[in-house]
């Protein structure tokens, strides 16, 4: 069972900035790109990087996420010496039931990690869109003889205060860290990807728990503690596509970018597939009245209207005379006749009755939540 490296995907976040889209499911379970969920990218990166022992730490509204991940079979992780394991909060000897933060979630699961006796621990966020070879980051970590390596990427200055930010010296060593500061000194942002020397991190967590139990979060507590103790912390620069889809606007934008056949994510790359667990659906059907332009239409869809620069997920029905433009439609949505949808995200199982309108703007995306309905006759009109 001994492994050089074990991955832990932190997938328990609520994602409150996604509003009604995360009212009933955790952020990593939010659909993306027609046939994926956000967590598929971290899981696929692990599989493609040859890391087959993966813990998935869940907490907020975990049912749909747990069912989606299962044992990791859809990502090729279900091997005799590996697999994906769902790890949820439980009552321990200290009486603690919930994960208080990212570092506390790892502390609560020391027993799981120690089963594999790893030298290194890879900690990932389950809510970002990107492709990354974690083995290259591990090679960098070893080369630098680092205690901790943090994946980093430059972000727009106006977005910088949303992230953990760092300054480095010429060798790439991290010399200063700010967690979501109001006045950023840097735009070099943490990607929420960490490689730790596991024995050292384990000792930090155990020692702190025995004293004052303040080490709850990597950004707020662990990285500052490493800096205070002059540990060797290095930044691993990532230069490809990466998207934090933590807001309605960023989720919509990432889906619209996904429509570009020359998108940097290169979803059709045979050598780095993004895998998912998908329902068995019949082929899509486009009627003689349909018109589809620059769009993705997934299995099970029935389209009798006009689809322009949009994504239709599994089993979406679009009635005659309806127009869907610059929008992301999640699975099992029913769109009646003569409906207009523009600059919008429509949640799973939603229904837009005949003649309904859902119209947003590029900086103000319209949203219909899960199983919500708009249009149709009101009760006093029936």
UniProtKB/TrEMBL annotation:
SUPFAM superfamilies cross-referenced by the UniProt entry: Nucleotide-diphospho-sugar transferases (SSF53448), Trimeric LpxA-like enzymes (SSF51161)
Taxonomy, superkingdom: Bacteria
Protein keywords: ATP-binding, Carbohydrate metabolism, Glycogen biosynthesis, Glycogen metabolism, Nucleotide-binding, Nucleotidyltransferase, Transferase
GO BP terms: glycogen biosynthetic process
An example molecular function term from Gene Ontology annotations: ATP binding
InterPro entries: ADP-Glc_PPase, ADP_Glu_pyroP_CS, GlgC_bac, GlmU/GlgC-like_hexapep, NTP_transferase_dom, Nucleotide-diphossugar_trans, Trimer_LpxA-like_sf
Binding positions for alpha-D-glucose 1-phosphate per the UniProt entry: 164, 179-180, 190
Site label Could play a key role in the communication between the regulatory and the substrate sites, positions: 59, 98
Catalytic activity from the UniProt record: alpha-D-glucose 1-phosphate + ATP + H(+) = ADP-alpha-D-glucose + diphosphate
Record-annotated Nucleotidyl transferase domain positions: 7-258
Span of domain Glucose-1-phosphate adenylyltransferase/Bifunctional protein GlmU-like C-terminal hexapeptide: 288-362
Enzyme Commission number(s) from the entry: 2.7.7.27
Pathway entry: Glycan biosynthesis; glycogen biosynthesis
TM region(s), chain numbering: none
Uppermost EC category: transferase
UniProt family annotation: Belongs to the bacterial/plant glucose-1-phosphate adenylyltransferase family.
Subunit description: Homotetramer.
Xref: NCBIfam families: glgC, PRK05293.1
PANTHER family in the record: GLUCOSE-1-PHOSPHATE ADENYLYLTRANSFERASE (PTHR43523:SF2), GLUCOSE-1-PHOSPHATE ADENYLYLTRANSFERASE-RELATED (PTHR43523)
Function: Involved in the biosynthesis of ADP-glucose, a building block required for the elongation reactions to produce glycogen. Catalyzes the reaction between ATP and alpha-D-glucose 1-phosphate (G1P) to produce pyrophosphate and ADP-Glc.
Protein name: Glucose-1-phosphate adenylyltransferase
Species whose genome carries this gene: Desemzia incerta
The gene coding this protein: glgC
């Amino acid at each position: 069972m001994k492994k050089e490296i074990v991955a832990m995907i932190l997938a328990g976040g609520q994602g409150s900035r996604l509003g009604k889209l995360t009212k009933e499911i955790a952020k990593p379970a939010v659909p993306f790109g027609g046939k994926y969920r956000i967590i598929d990218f971290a899981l696929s990166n692990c599989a493609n990087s040859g890391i087959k022992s993966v813990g998935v730490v869940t907490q907020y509204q975990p049912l749909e996420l747990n069912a989606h991940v299962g044992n990791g079979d859809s990502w090729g992780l279900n091997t005799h010496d590996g697999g994906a394991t769902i790890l949820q909060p439980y009552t321990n000897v200290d009486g603690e039931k919930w994960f208080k933060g990212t570092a506390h979630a790892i502390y609560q699961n020391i027993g799981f990690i120690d089963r594999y006796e790893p030298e290194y621990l890879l900690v990932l966020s389950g809510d970002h869109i990107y492709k990354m070879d974690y083995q290259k980051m591990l090679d960098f970590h070893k080369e630098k003889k680092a205690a901790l390596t943090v994946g980093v990427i430059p972000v727009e200055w106006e977005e910088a205060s949303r992230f953990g930010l760092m300054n480095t010296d010429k060798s790439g060593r991290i010399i200063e860290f700010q967690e979501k500061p109001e006045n950023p000194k840097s735009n070099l942002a943490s990607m929420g990807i960490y490689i730790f020397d596991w024995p050292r991190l384990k000792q930090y967590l155990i020692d702190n728990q025995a004293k004052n139990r303040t080490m709850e979060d990597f950004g707020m507590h662990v990285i500052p503690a490493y800096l205070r103790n002059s540990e060797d912390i290095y930044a691993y620069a990532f230069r490809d596509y990466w998207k934090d889809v933590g807001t309605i606007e960023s989720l919509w934008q990432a889906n619209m970018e996904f429509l570009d056949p020359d998108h940097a994510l290169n979803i059709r790359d045979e050598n780095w597939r993004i895998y998912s667990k998908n329902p068995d659906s019949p082929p899509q059907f486009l009627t003689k009245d349909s018109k589809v332009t620059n769009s993705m239409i997934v299995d099970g869809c029935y389209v009798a209207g006009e689809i322009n620069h949009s994504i239709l997920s599994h089993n979406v029905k679009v009635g005659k005379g309806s127009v869907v433009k610059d929008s992301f439609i999640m699975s099992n949505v029913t769109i009646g006749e003569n409906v207009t949808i523009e600059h919008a995200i429509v949640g799973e199982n939603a229904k837009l009755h005949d003649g309904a309108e859902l119209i947003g703007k590029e900086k103000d995306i319209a949203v219909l939540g899960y199983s919500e309905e708009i249009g149709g006759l009101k009760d006093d009109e029936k």
